[in-house]
Design brief:
554 residues, binds alpha-D-glucopyranose, alpha/beta, five-stranded antiparallel β-sheet
C-alpha cells in the first residue's frame, strides 16, 4: 500500500464556539485556539479539525455559511486564521477546515440574488419549484417539517435538506461546482492540510423529485429514503477531488452516512473520493424512524459488534476514522458505558478500545478528560435546533414534557457542545464572561488543570495511549497491522489483535463492572498499557478487574 502522510497521525476535533474564549464574550475564538496549541501538542495530537468558523448567522452553529471567504467576527479575523495556520505549522501540526457545501446560508448573497430574481442565474444555484404545482416531494427535513418552504417574495418553493436557513446548493449546475472548487483551492493555497466534508452524501438528489412511502403520520418520509434512490454521486465527488484536493495532496474525511453496500472502495479505496470517512456504525445503532425518543440504548456487546462489523467492511479497502463522539452526538462515555458507571477507569477502557482500532483515531475536545453528558434543567436551556425538533416529535408522539426532555437529553447535540472544562474556576475557566451555553456542573471534579497534575487521570492515560500508538516499535503495527477480533463470544469482553510481520499486540477490555477471567491463546508478553495498578495472571489466564484495559505483546 502506498504510504500517505496522514496514515499515522492523531486527529483532534475542535468545536471553536466551546473551546476557549480569549476575549470574554462567552464564545470561543481563534485566539483561544492559538493559546491552547501547546496543550494540544503536549497531548500528542497532530491534526486539528475545526468545526466551521466562516461568516455565518449561526442558525446551525456555523454549518450555515453566508461567506465562504470570511471568518465570522465572533471567532476572529482572517489575520487570526493566518496566525493559527502558521502557529500550527511551527509545531508540526496540520489544520483541517469543515467543508459545508451541500447547502449555504439563506443569508448568502447567492440566495439573496435568487430571491430577487428566481428566474435569473442565481435561481439555478438552488432547487426551486413553482408554488402552484405544490411540493415536488414529501421528504422530511433533518431538522423537522417539509424540505420545501416558500422562497420569500416569490411564487416559488426552495429545497432545504436541513434547516430552512440552509438552502441546498444545486450541484447539477456546473457554475455552482466551479464556485465551490474555487473556494476549496483558495483555502488550500493558504496552507490547510485538508477538510472534513460535511453532509456530503446529500449533494445528489434523485431527479425528477418524487414522493416515497411516508414513514410517520405527518405523511413525510426520511431523507435517508431519497438517498437510496440517488445514483451518480461519484461523478461529482471524483470531479471535486481532481479539481481540488488531489492537486495539494490534501487529507479529506467525509461525513458519510447511508453509503450503499458496495460503495466503500469508491469512497475510501486507494483511488477513493476521500482519504477517509467516519465510522458511524456505533452512532446509528438503535435509531428509529420515529425519532430519538424511540432509540434503542446500545450495550457493550452491541458496541463491540458494531466496531468489528465496521472493521470487517473496511478491511483491505481503506482507512475509517474512529470516534466515540463529535459535536453532533452525546458524549461517548455517557452513551457507550452503562448508566452510573462513568469511573475514570471505565472511561479509559472505552477510549483505549476505540483508539487502537484500525483506522484514524479522532479525539473530540474534552474527550481526553472524560467529559460527560450535561443535565438540562428544562427545554428552555437547550440551544440546538435538532434537539428542539426532536423534543416536539416526542411530545407529538404522546410523551409528557418531562418524559420528552428525558428522552432527548440522552441524545442532544448540546451534550458535546458545553464549554471545555479547563479548570475549577467559575465557568470552568472557559470564559471570563457568560458562556453562550452553560458549562456542565461537574467541572470542579472534571477539568484539565486537575488532571494535568494527576498521573492516574483520564488525561494522563490519553497521553500514554497516544505515545504508545506512536512508539517506533509499534507504530506500524497500529497503523497498518490487521485487526483480528478475538474471544468474540465471551460476553462483556472486547478484545482484538493488531498484527503484522513484526508484532502481535493484544488489546483487551473487561467491559463491565465486575471481575472477569479470560484464558488467552498464548501467555502474555510485555504489558504496554494498563488502566489498573496491577495485573493478576496465572499462565495464560488473566483475572481482569472491573473495566480493566490492557495492551500487551503476545
Ligand atoms: C452535519 C454537521 C451538523 C450539521 C449538519 C448540517 O451533520 O455535522 O452539525 O447540523 O451537517 O450542516
Amino acid at each position: 500500500m502506498e504510504r500517505k502522510w496522514w496514515h499515522d497521525k492523531v486527529f483532534y476535533q475542535i468545536y471553536p464556539k466551546s473551546f476557549y474564549d480569549s476575549n470574554g464574550d462567552g464564545i470561543g475564538d481563534l485566539q483561544g485556539i492559538i493559546q491552547k496549541l501547546d496543550y494540544l501538542k503536549d497531548l500528542g495530537v497532530d491534526v486539528l479539525w475545526l468545526s466551521p468558523i466562516y461568516q455565518s448567522p449561526l442558525a446551525d452553529q456555523g454549518y450555515d455559511i453566508s461567506d465562504y471567504y470570511a471568518i465570522d467576527p465572533r471567532f476572529g479575523t482572517m489575520e487570526d486564521m493566518d496566525e493559527l495556520i502558521a502557529e500550527a505549522k511551527k509545531r508540526g501540526m496540520y489544520l483541517l477546515m469543515d467543508l459545508v457545501v451541500n447547502h449555504c446560508s439563506d443569508e448568502h448573497p447567492w440566495f439573496e440574488a435568487a430571491k430577487k430574481d428566481p428566474d435569473g442565474p442565481y435561481g439555478d444555484f438552488f432547487y426551486l419549484a413553482d408554488k402552484k404545482d405544490g411540493r415536488p416531494s414529501n421528504w422530511r427535513s433533518c431538522f423537522g417539517g417539509s424540505v420545501w418552504d416558500p422562497l420569500p417574495g416569490t411564487d416559488k418553493l426552495y429545497l432545504h435538506i436541513f434547516h430552512r436557513k440552509q438552502p441546498d446548493l444545486n450541484w447539477e449546475n456546473p457554475r455552482v461546482r466551479r464556485e465551490i472548487y474555487k473556494n476549496i483551492n483558495w483555502w488550500l493555497e493558504k496552507g490547510l492540510g485538508g477538510f472534513r466534508i460535511d453532509a456530503i452524501i446529500n449533494i445528489k438528489k434523485p431527479l425528477p423529485f418524487c414522493d416515497y412511502e411516508p414513514d410517520r403520520s405527518d405523511g413525510l418520509c426520511s431523507v435517508s429514503e431519497m438517498l437510496k434512490h440517488a445514483e451518480g454521486i461519484g461523478e461529482f465527488l471524483g470531479e471535486m477531488k481532481r479539481e481540488t484536493f488531489a492537486k495539494y495532496d490534501a487529507f479529506t474525511v467525509g461525513e458519510v452516512f447511508n453509503i450503499k453496500e458496495d460503495e466503500m472502495r469508491d469512497f475510501i479505496g486507494p483511488d477513493g473520493y476521500f482519504s477517509s470517512m467516519f465510522d458511524f456504525n456505533e452512532t446509528i445503532f438503535g435509531e428509529s424512524p420515529n425519532g430519538w425518543y424511540d432509540m434503542k440504548k446500545i450495550t457493550g456487546e452491541d458496541y463491540k459488534n458494531c466496531c468489528f462489523e465496521a472493521q470487517e467492511r473496511a478491511e483491505g479497502i481503506g482507512f475509517l476514522s474512529n470516534i466515540i463522539e463529535n459535536h453532533d452526538e452525546p458524549r461517548g462515555v455517557s452513551r457507550y458505558l452503562p448508566e452510573g458507571e462513568h469511573s475514570p477507569r471505565a472511561k479509559k477502557m472505552l477510549g483505549g478500545l476505540n483508539f487502537l482500532l484500525k483506522g484514524l483515531p479522532f479525539i473530540y475536545q474534552g474527550q481526553e478528560i472524560g467529559m460527560e453528558n450535561t443535565v438540562f434543567s428544562s427545554i428552555d436551556v437547550v440551544d440546538d435546533i435538532s434537539t428542539l425538533d426532536q423534543y416536539q416529535v416526542a411530545l407529538d408522539a404522546g410523551l409528557s414534557p418531562e418524559e420528552a426532555l428525558k428522552a432527548v437529553s440522552a441524545y442532544s447535540r448540546d451534550n458535546a457542545r458545553t464549554p471545555v472544562q479547563w479548570d475549577a474556576s467559575p465557568q470552568a475557566g472557559f470564559t471570563s464572561g457568560t458562556p453562550w451555553l452553560s458549562v456542565n456542573s461537574n467541572y470542579r471534579e472534571i477539568n484539565v488543570a486537575a488532571q494535568e497534575q494527576d498521573e492516574t487521570s483520564v488525561l494522563s492515560f490519553y497521553k500514554k495511549l497516544i505515545a504508545l500508538r506512536k512508539h517506533p516499535d509499534y507504530r506500524d503495527t497500529f497503523v497498518y497491522g490487521r485487526l483480528i477480533p478475538c474471544h468474540r463470544e465471551q460476553k462483556h469482553l472486547m478484545a482484538y489483535y493488531r498484527k503484522d510481520a513484526q508484532n502481535t499486540l493484544l488489546v483487551i477490555g473487561n467491559y463491565q463492572n465486575r471481575p472477569q477471567e479470560v484464558t488467552l491463546e498464548n501467555a502474555p508478553g510485555t504489558i504496554l498499557l494498563n488502566n489498573c495498578e496491577r495485573l493478576a495472571a496465572d499462565g495464560k489466564t488473566l483475572f481482569l478487574e472491573p473495566y480493566q484495559f490492557l495492551v500487551m505483546t503476545i
